[in-house]
Amino acid sequence: MEKFLNILYPRRCPVCHQILTEKGILVCRACENQLHPIIKDYCLKCGRPVAPEVEFCPECRKVHREFDRGRGVFLYNNRMRQSLLHYKYYGSREYGEYYAASICRYMERDIRAWNPDVIIPVPMYPRKQRERGFNQAADIADRVGRNLKIPVPDQIIRKTKNTRSQKKLSAAERKQNLREAFQITERMDGLSILVMDDVYTTGSTIEAMAHVLKGAGAERVFFVTLCMGWI
């Protein structure tokens, strides 16, 4: 059956989108060598790339962060932007396997050190999720949770406000846009939480999630995203 499905729906590289001819790989060799994971010189708070001698990015130096610490795997460049577009809007759901494998490969040490009790993906507004067919953050989180044996409970946080798209908003507008957008369904007293999303840009979404989680008693809130964008 698997062989038949591979013929009918051949696996494609999540970066160049060409059919993978080599068995057992998730990304073609050429593309893998061109990707640049953020493995050094990053902000010790949010994970954004910084100069080698700098500990914190300008934003984390000047504002209080609701979350405790976070990391991103890849820079949100055009390659990753196109990859995520195919994943979210054009049916390339299998790319999630590569995304989760990359998170486990590059972030497992940090995640183990943070020792989260659960992984909570950033939720989508129900109508938007129905239109898209799935929540990309939940899909990635479920795959990572299975690989690392960390629970990924469903519906802990719901998005109850249909906010505007964050893409074209300023940092201040993004923060205002997400105010009171998330609602938590149970107490998180004393728990360590790992929030998971596909892209971190200004951090407004993660901040809003951390605010709700700590308001429900969470002791610590960390995050991991597949991509880390520039402000």
Automatic annotation (TrEMBL):
Domain spans labelled Double zinc ribbon: 4-61
Domain Phosphoribosyltransferase: 112-227
Pfam families xref list: DZR_2, Pribosyltran
Residues annotated as transmembrane: none
UniProt xrefs under InterPro entries: ComF/GntX_DNA_util-trans, DZR_2, PRTase-like, PRTase_dom
Similarity annotation: Belongs to the ComF/GntX family.
Official protein name in the record: ComF family protein
Organism whose genome encodes this protein: Blautia intestinihominis
Lineage: Bacteria, Bacillati, Bacillota, Clostridia, Lachnospirales
